[in-house]
C-alpha cells in the first residue's frame, strides 16, 4: 500500500502580513486651543485622551490635574461640566492653564443639562475645545430633539467639534424599545446582545445625521459607543467602523481597577487597533485610593507603543527574574531607569527629538542577558545569583565596558545620559 508523503509544512503558504492593518480611512477633525491643534482621524496618529476626577468647580485642583495629565502625555483632557458652578469655573481653569503654558484642549462632558449650561455660560462654551454629547442623556420625549439641537447650535456658533458619545448604561430607551419591537416581529429575531449593539450604533448614526441637518460640519463629528464587555466592544466598533467615516474614540467604559482594568482595556482596544480601527483612546481605570490620575495616560501610551503604533518614551526591556536572580538589584535598576526616562521626557521631547524610540535593556543574568542587551540601544546584564559580580554594558550591540561595585546604578544612568546627548541632540 503506497503512502502519500506529507507536504512540507511551509509549502505553498502565503506569508502572513506583519504589523497592524492599514488605518481605517476617516474624516479628520481638529481639536484646538490657540496654537495647539490636535488632529484626529485621517492621517493623524492615534491620540491619547484622559479625564479629570476633580470637582470642576474647584478651579485650582482641576487645573493642576489637567496639567499633570498633559505633562504625562494626554493630548486631550475631558472635564465634567454638570452644574452652573462647574460651567462658571471652566474659563478660569482655562486661564490658569494658559498662564502655565499648558495648551492642551479641554473637552466638556455634558449630560442632562448641557443645553442650558452652554446657553447660560457662553464663556464656558468658548473656553472648551470640544463638547461631548450623550444622546441618551439630552432629554426625554419631545424635549430630546430641542435640547440636542440647542447643543449643536452652540457647537456651530462657537465653531467647536463634538463627540457623540453613546454609552450602554445610558442608552436612549425609546430607540431601544423601538428596535426591540421591530426585532420581535422578525421570523428569526436577533439576540438581546445583538439588539443592544444595534441600538448603540443607530443612536450614534442617527444623532450624527441630525447634527449635520442642523448645520454641524461633518468633519467635526467624532463618535464613540462604549460598553464594559470586551467582546461587545469589539463587535460594536467593527460594525460601526463599516457604517461611517467619522473618527472613532475607543474606550472600555467601567474597565475596573488595577490589573483587571488594564488587561481588559488592552485586550479590547488592541484587537481593534490591530485592525486599523480607532483614532483616540482612553483607558478608563478606577484609580486606587491616592494613586496618580495620570496612570491611565501611561497605560494608553504603553498600549500604543508596545503595538508599534507610536513612540512616547524610551522603553525598558527587563526579564521577569527566576531562581537564577534571587537578588533584587536588576529589578530596582529597571524600575529606577524607567522612572528616570519618563521624568526626563518632557524636557527631552523639546531638546532631543527621536529619543522616545530608544530601547534600554536591564537583564538579570547571563542566560539571555547579553543577547537581549545587544539588541537594545543600551543594555546591561547584571550578575545572577552565584555569578561573577560584573555587569557588562552594551551600546548599539557592542560591549563598551563592565561595571562593578556599589555604584552600578549611577554609572549606568551616566551612560544612558551620554548616549541620549550623543545620538539625539539637535543637529
Automatic annotation (TrEMBL):
EC number: 1.17.7.3
Superkingdom of this protein's organism: Bacteria
Pathway the protein takes part in: Isoprenoid biosynthesis; isopentenyl diphosphate biosynthesis via DXP pathway; isopentenyl diphosphate from 1-deoxy-D-xylulose 5-phosphate: step 5/6
Lineage of producing organism: Bacteria, Pseudomonadati, Pseudomonadota, Betaproteobacteria, Burkholderiales
Record field: transmembrane: none
Cofactor note: Binds 1 [4Fe-4S] cluster.
Protein's UniProt name: 4-hydroxy-3-methylbut-2-en-1-yl diphosphate synthase (flavodoxin)
The family this protein is said to belong to: Belongs to the IspG family.
PANTHER family in the record: 4-HYDROXY-3-METHYLBUT-2-EN-1-YL DIPHOSPHATE SYNTHASE, 4-HYDROXY-3-METHYLBUT-2-EN-1-YL DIPHOSPHATE SYNTHASE (FERREDOXIN), CHLOROPLASTIC
Binding site for [4Fe-4S] cluster: 319, 322, 365, 372
Reaction catalysed by this enzyme: (2E)-4-hydroxy-3-methylbut-2-enyl diphosphate + oxidized [flavodoxin] + H2O + 2 H(+) = 2-C-methyl-D-erythritol 2,4-cyclic diphosphate + reduced [flavodoxin]
GO BP: isopentenyl diphosphate biosynthetic process, methylerythritol 4-phosphate pathway; terpenoid biosynthetic process
Cofactor field: [4Fe-4S] cluster
IspG TIM-barrel domain span: 37-300
Function: Converts 2C-methyl-D-erythritol 2,4-cyclodiphosphate (ME-2,4cPP) into 1-hydroxy-2-methyl-2-(E)-butenyl 4-diphosphate.
Organism: Polynucleobacter antarcticus
Region (Disordered): 1-25
InterPro entries: Dihydropteroate_synth-like_sf (IPR011005), IspG_bac (IPR016425), IspG_bac-typ (IPR004588), IspG_C (IPR058579), IspG_TIM (IPR058578), NO2/SO3_Rdtase_4Fe4S_sf (IPR045854)
Domain named IspG C-terminal: residues: 316-416
UniProt entry keywords in alphabetical sequence: 4Fe-4S, Iron, Iron-sulfur, Isoprene biosynthesis, Metal-binding, Oxidoreductase
Amino acid at each position: 500500500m503506497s503512502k502519500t508523503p506529507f507536504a512540507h509544512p511551509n509549502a505553498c503558504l502565503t506569508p502572513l502580513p506583519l504589523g497592524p492593518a492599514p488605518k481605517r480611512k476617516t474624516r479628520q477633525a481638529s481639536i484646538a486651543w490657540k496654537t495647539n491643534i490636535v488632529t484626529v482621524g485621517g492621517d493623524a496618529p492615534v491620540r491619547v485622551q484622559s479625564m479629570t476626577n476633580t470637582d470642576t468647580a474647584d478651579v485650582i485642583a482641576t487645573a493642576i490635574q489637567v496639567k499633570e495629565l498633559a505633562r504625562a502625555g494626554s493630548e486631550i483632557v475631558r472635564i465634567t461640566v454638570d452644574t452652573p458652578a462647574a460651567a462658571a469655573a471652566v474659563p478660569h481653569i482655562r486661564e490658569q492653564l494658559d498662564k502655565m503654558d499648558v495648551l492642551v484642549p479641554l473637552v466638556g462632558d455634558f449630560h442632562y443639562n448641557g443645553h442650558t449650561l452652554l446657553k447660560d455660560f457662553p464663556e464656558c462654551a468658548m473656553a472648551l475645545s470640544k463638547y461631548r454629547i450623550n444622546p441618551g442623556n439630552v432629554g426625554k420625549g419631545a424635549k430630546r430633539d430641542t435640547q440636542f439641537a440647542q447643543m449643536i447650535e452652540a457647537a456651530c456658533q462657537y465653531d467647536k467639534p463634538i463627540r457623540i458619545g453613546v454609552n450602554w448604561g445610558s442608552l436612549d430607551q425609546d430607540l431601544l424599545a423601538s428596535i426591540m419591537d421591530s426585532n420581535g416581529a422578525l421570523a428569526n429575531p436577533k439576540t438581546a446582545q445583538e439588539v443592544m449593539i444595534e441600538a448603540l450604533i443607530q443612536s450614534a448614526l442617527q444623532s450624527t445625521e441630525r447634527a449635520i441637518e442642523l448645520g454641524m460640519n461633518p468633519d467635526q463629528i467624532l463618535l464613540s459607543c462604549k460598553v464594559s464587555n470586551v467582546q461587545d466592544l469589539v463587535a460594536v466598533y467593527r460594525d460601526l467602523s463599516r457604517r461611517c467615516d467619522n473618527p472613532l474614540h475607543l474606550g472600555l467604559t467601567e474597565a475596573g481597577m488595577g490589573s483587571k482594568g488594564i488587561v481588559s482595556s488592552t485586550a479590547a482596544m488592541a484587537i481593534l487597533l490591530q485592525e486599523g480601527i480607532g483614532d483616540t483612546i482612553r483607558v478608563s481605570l478606577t484609580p486606587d485610593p491616592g494613586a496618580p490620575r495620570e496612570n491611565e495616560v501611561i497605560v494608553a501610551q504603553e498600549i500604543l507603543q508596545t503595538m508599534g503604533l507610536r513612540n512616547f518614551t524610551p522603553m525598558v526591556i527587563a526579564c521577569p527574574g527566576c531562581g537564577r536572580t534571587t537578588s533584587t538589584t536588576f529589578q530596582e535598576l529597571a524600575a529606577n531607569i524607567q522612572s528616570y526616562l519618563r521624568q526626563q521626557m518632557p524636557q527631552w521631547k523639546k531638546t532631543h527629538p527621536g529619543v522616545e524610540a530608544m530601547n534600554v535593556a536591564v537583564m538579570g543574568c547571563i542566560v539571555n542577558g547579553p543577547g537581549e542587551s545587544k539588541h537594545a540601544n543600551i543594555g546591561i546584564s547584571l550578575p545572577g545569583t552565584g555569578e561573577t559580580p560584573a555587569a557588562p554594558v552594551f551600546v548599539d550591540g557592542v560591549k563598551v565596558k563592565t561595571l562593578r561595585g556599589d555604584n552600578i546604578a549611577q554609572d549606568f544612568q551616566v551612560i544612558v545620559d551620554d548616549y541620549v546627548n550623543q545620538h539625539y541632540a539637535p543637529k
